[in-house]
Amino acid sequence: MVAQAAGALAAPAPLPWWRGRRGAVVAVAVGIVIAFFGWKSQVPWPAALTWNSLSHDLDNFQAWLSNNRNVPHPSVFFRAFNGIATFLDDLVGWLTSFFFKLTWAGTTALGTLVVLRFGGRRAALGVLTAFLLFAAMGLWDPVVRTFALTFASVSLSLLIGQPLGILAGRSDRFQRLVTPVLDAMQIVPAFAYLMPIVILFSVGPGAAVATTLIYAIPPAIRITALGIRGVPTNTVEAAEALGATRLQTLVKVQLPLARRMLLLSVNQTILFALSMVVIAGLIGGEGLGSVVTSGLYSDPAQALLAGAAIVVMAIALDRATEAMAIRTDPAQRHLTEGKRRTLRLYTAACATAVGLAVGLGYAFGAGSVWSRWTASDWLLARIQRVLDYVQSPTTFIFHITSPVGNFLVQYGLSPLRSFFVETPWPAMAFGLALIAFLLSGLRPAVTTLVMLAVIGLSNEWVNAMDTLSQVLVATVFTLLVGIPLGVWAAESTRARKTMRPVLDILQTLPQLVYIIPFIYLMPVSLVPGVLASVLYAAPVVIRLVEAGVREVSPHPVEAADSFGATRLQTLLKVKIPLARDAIMLGVNQGIIMVLAVVVIAGLVGSGALGYDVAQGLQQSLFGQGVLASVAILALGITLDRITQGRRRKRIELT
Amino acid sequence: MKVRAGGLAILVAIGVVALTAGGADAKQSACGTVTLNQQAWAGSEANTYVAKNVLEKIGCTVKITTITEVPVYQAMADGKTDAVLEDWGHVPQQQQYVAKQKTVVDEGPNGVTGVIGWYIPTYLMKAHPEFKTWKGLKGKESLFKSPESGSQGMFLGGDPSYQQKDKTLITALGLNLKFVSVGAEPAQVARWTQLYKQNKPVLFYWYDPQYLNAQYKLSQIQLPARFKGCKDDEKQGGNPKQYACAYPSYTLEKFFSAKFAKSGSPAVAVLKRFSWSNADQNSVAGAIAGQHVDPDKAAQKWIAANQAKVNKWLGK
Amino acid sequence: MADTPAALGHEIDRSGDPLIRVEGVWKIFGRHADRVIGTPDADLPRAELREKHGCVAAVRNVTFDVWPREVFVVMGLSGSGKSTLVRTLIRLIEPTAGRVEIAGKDVTAASQTELRELRRHTSSMVFQHFGLLAHRRVIDNVAFGLEIQGVPKAERLERAGKILRLVGLEDSGNQFPDQLSGGMQQRVGLARAFAVDPAVMLYDEPFSALDPLIRRDMQDEVIRLQHDTGKTMVFITHDLPEALRLGDRIAIMRDGAIVQLGTPEELVGSPADEYVENFVRDIPRSHVLTLRWIMRDARPGEADGPRLDVRTTVRNAIPVIVASERAVCAVEGDSVVGVVDREAVLTAIAGES
């Protein structure tokens, strides 16, 4: 009797792995590989199915824009843009000359004391160090210009982005509408729309601000929305239950309680804006960006130095805004009347000190004095020495890196590229769609097919497959590096603290500045591009995974401990599965970041879509640039859909 | 109260500074401010800085912008940049801005002749004299193999912003070469200089004037002679045979913003007369990019050594 | 319990109309909710409804009235729909169907402005996770409802101060929520709800997040406040002893529907079905049942035994019954309505195991 019952209760034997979904995916992949070997290069995308004239039409559109803009009496449409451009130019110009008038001494005092007052001693020390470094690098002039540009861009991004973010936080429909737009704004390379912006806004700080806005508004919106949604439900309900109007709830409850996130959005917007500095340099946004672009061709040491200045500015601003956010949190500060009075005195004292510094600055000509103290020649000489070493093929590093690079290309990247490019397009297209279906469902599969059709129609199939092969490799490596490091950072405070400055540098140092020297060490195509992608995308993945794993509830971890699990077991069986959402977000953002580097990769040997976009700008092939960008966007959407998995909607009941 | 008033006073003072900011600080001179645009490469930096230092001699204040090649036409149309001293022939831009809108003016050659072609290191030419013409490459393409070119030889393509037709040319000439695009010029330079330093064979798109030509000994491969109707713009498509000729020599031209050209500033005449040779440009560029001399200093050195030429520009 | 001093002195006003009327309220979550309502599909068990329509019926056809000064408890396990139900009363969640009337005003048909007015002046709510504003002082939190009404600062702070005294937190006014313990934070929540002087107070599992010892104190607090202020309360809980302790009437919910609605004794004494029976099984009946449940008619000659109020619980009556040789008379007011003897008591106690 017992045996029978036990038999009835016994679980059915589990399916072998190759029977389930995973097996199906592998089968499809094998199918594609067979198609490759069987019909290599024999079924390219049919020319009949391409929209050939699209490229020309787009070129004509740009010519039309230009011809209609540069007439003595342009239409209202163009005059409106002119007006905005002039306003932005003036704004940045005003900010620039304001800081110049304050002199280096005055600006340093202003910056340091403001941060001291609102952010504490540590942050103020960081800011002071940054100012000293700028002087030492001999880059004060471009730094001020870049700062003015960034300041204007960030202010406008927040002015536009935060209200929209609030709207997205309160309205699900708006959020659904706006998310794909934001994705596009972040994936479509700036190179693609640079010419139209230049035509509409002319050249100069105005165009630079406009370009930066496109890239910097999405984080402002996204993070603000996240903050609004993160306000505890009960608190919002309490306000509603007390009869608050929507405005009252927003102003008295949601905004104050979303404060942390709102300030994080400021912080991230600053970093995103700074990452556009180099592109801004191409269209007249003066400052460190143009030092980098002109240095790349003739003085790489100078470009590196300017890049380092960008990093210093980014880190200083990041730490300062973070410190100020924490310090001024009313929920933490518990301000009483007495405390408020003391703080007001403090502010007045700081303001006085700034005034004194400005005065001293004028008195001693401290605006120019610093140039005598600058160490830029010494710094440049040092950097040049390193570059000379890197550029010589006789060093022992070269003897290691060069063969490694050759091997990677010859036996890894190049064959993979051939596989993607030369597989008959039906096999590839339907194979990918099938994989999407197996992994994520019907809708993502349909989206995949549509996106691939768009790519084919715009005559970018070959280039897109080429780029796809590289993006896949880059993404895989990004995740292979990023997820473990993220987990490690979550587990070890020391690891996190050591990693932080490295991650900051990787996210803000203009990539061309360090990748081009790298080519000397690994003189092959494809690898530098992949490396640039991994180095740019991994920090984001690391940060997201670290945050996710750290926030896993301690209870299941405790439970695992109580069963005698080792650290590794707890990690693998509890923490990582529970941090799944954060890890998936990391995958998604990793893909976006890799795609964001496609154009830079094109400039260092990855060819394909990135090269086409760059060439589109630089040889005025607007159509080509747009189509290549659309292809990049399509790849992004495809990869996102395939990797999102099955999302189940949960309705919570109490 | 006192402290508050004091703090307020200081803030007002800063406010005053702020309000007076934005005022132009330009020196009032007969010449005024001239804005020259410097393109990405060292040669352009060279001619821009020499022009700058010459103009400063006649009392102009010179600003230098670093706007990239194509958008700079819009900058000239808007008068935000006054002159570009080295343009390699952007046909669509010239059609739009010069011919149609007349917002930009073509001010003629700057004296430098641009030569684009296929280059190999001189040590390779010495070892393989047959490479003097492209026919000598036939059958020997595998000499230029690289990890990414498989069994074919590698041809290193040029910067995406440069005119090139090598992909089509290779097909037209029937050579077993793979066109490998290595990205922007600094990346391409990294590739071929590394191979040069190792005495290895390398075949690449290259041009003069270029400052590296003084540091590295390069030889040009002769391509088929130019014939009537020979095409150079790959994007036009069509039968590859139409591209089977050498690159034309480019007369590099100066372009002024129409507003600047009509302004009557003394700088206009000087810049109109600006003209120098490939060697001149290469020497200054070599100083700036090769020896990392400060651009202003390099320019002044050249001016000091070439007073006669400079005087001609100044109309003396 | 039924014979705590508060309960005994607790007069529900059944003279006029009910203060809250809930008629046929439904709440179905899901995109096709409006298609399902009114059809027989709405009565499908939860799993099948989700399969067929992708909808979840959180509240099914709930009807009840609440009288002025009554403490009406809605009890159920998680997923029974009780928290959803209390939110439909002031339309924090919009009901899919049905009608709610509070103090004579139709809530379900009210405009946004009318609804807001109702929320500001007629009702208030206390939440499980307190819902306090971390960036404001305690006194500002208490005054928050008045702030929303537009009461000037001096006046609302004064009123808030008075309410703080009511809940015993007069010394904590200047502190911030994160400086208080859980129990104190919930007192602030209570104070905030009382400060707007509502007719109706809604409590959504207010003590679930507190530890048991504090919970009992808070229950006493609520009883005391109710007794002093006479507010009408709708109280949500999953804790049966709490429900029995506080409630005048209790509605037990399961899968969105009310399974039984009655006084504590009715629930304990005659559970409607096996589900309720399971629920009340562990409650000692003698602690809940009153003499009314176990009395029988008086036989001649028994009318002069010791007298106890008919609302006395069996447990509290035991000492008297044991001490007396004669049957005890249960009285209501002045008249004898029944008689209780030892046999009856023993039967009642025996039923407890």
Q: Helix/strand-derived class of chain C?
A: alpha/beta
Strand tally of chain C, please? 13
Distance between the termini of chain B: 69 Å
Total helices of chain B: the number is 13
Work out the strand percent of chain C: 15-25%
Shape of chain C: globular
Primary descriptors:
heterotrimer; A: about 650 residues; mainly alpha; globular; disordered C terminus; C: about 350 residues; alpha/beta; six-stranded mixed β-sheet; four-stranded antiparallel β-sheet; 17 helices; 13 strands; disordered N terminus
Give an overview in words.
The complex is a heterotrimer of chains A (654), B (316) and C (353). Chain A is mainly α and 654 residues long. Chain A is 84% helix and 0% strand. Chain A has helices at residues 2-9, 21-39, 53-69, 76-119, 121-137, 140-170, 172-187, 190-201, 205-229, 233-241, 246-257, 259-274, 277-282, 288-298, 300-327, 330-333, 337-363, 366-373, 376-391, 396-422, 425-440, 442-457, 461-491, 493-508, 511-521, 527-550, 554-562, 567-578, 580-596, 598-606, 608-618, 622-643. The radius of gyration of chain A is 27 Å and the shape is globular. The two termini of chain A are 42 Å apart. Mean pLDDT of chain A is 84; it is low at 648-654. In chain B, helix 6 (166-173) links the parallel strand 5 and strand 6. In chain C, strands 6-7-8-3-9-10 form a 6-stranded mixed β-sheet, with helices on both faces. Chain C has a 4-stranded antiparallel β-sheet with strand order 2-1-4-5. In chain C, helix 8 packs across helix 9. Chain C starts with a helix and ends with a helix. Chains in contact: A-B, A-C.
What would a concise description of this structure say?
The complex is a heterotrimer of chains A (654), B (316) and C (353). With 654 residues, chain A is an all-alpha fold.
SSE diagram, text form:
The complex is a heterotrimer of chains A (654), B (316) and C (353).
Chain A: H1 2-9, H2 21-39, H3 53-69, H4 76-119, H5 121-137, H6 140-170, H7 172-187, H8 190-201, H9 205-229, H10 233-241, H11 246-257, H12 259-274, H13 277-282, H14 288-298, H15 300-327, H16 330-333, H17 337-363, H18 366-373, H19 376-391, H20 396-422, H21 425-440, H22 442-457, H23 461-491, H24 493-508, H25 511-521, H26 527-550, H27 554-562, H28 567-578, H29 580-596, H30 598-606, H31 608-618, H32 622-643
Chain B: H1 2-20, E1 33-37, H2 42-57, E2 61-65, H3 71-77, E3 83-87, H4 91-100, E4 104-121, H5 122-127, E5 153-156, H6 166-173, E6 177-180, H7 185-197, E7 203-208, H8 212-215, E8 218-221, E9 250-257, H9 258-261, H10 266-273, H11 278-290, H12 295-305, H13 307-314
Parallel strand pairs in B: 1-2, 1-3, 5-6, 5-7
Antiparallel strand pairs in B: 3-9, 4-7, 4-8, 4-9
Chain C: H1 5-8, E1 20-29, H2 33-36, H3 46-53, E2 56-66, E3 71-75, H4 82-89, E4 97-102, E5 105-106, H5 112-121, E6 123-126, H6 138-142, H7 144-149, H8 153-167, H9 182-195, E7 200-204, H10 212-229, E8 232-237, H11 240-246, E9 249-254, E10 257-262, H12 264-269, H13 274-280, H14 285-288, H15 291-294, E11 307-309, H16 314-323, E12 328-332, E13 335-340, H17 342-350
Parallel strand pairs in C: 3-8, 3-9, 6-7, 7-8, 11-12
Antiparallel strand pairs in C: 1-2, 1-4, 4-5, 9-10, 12-13
Helix pairs in contact in C: 8-9
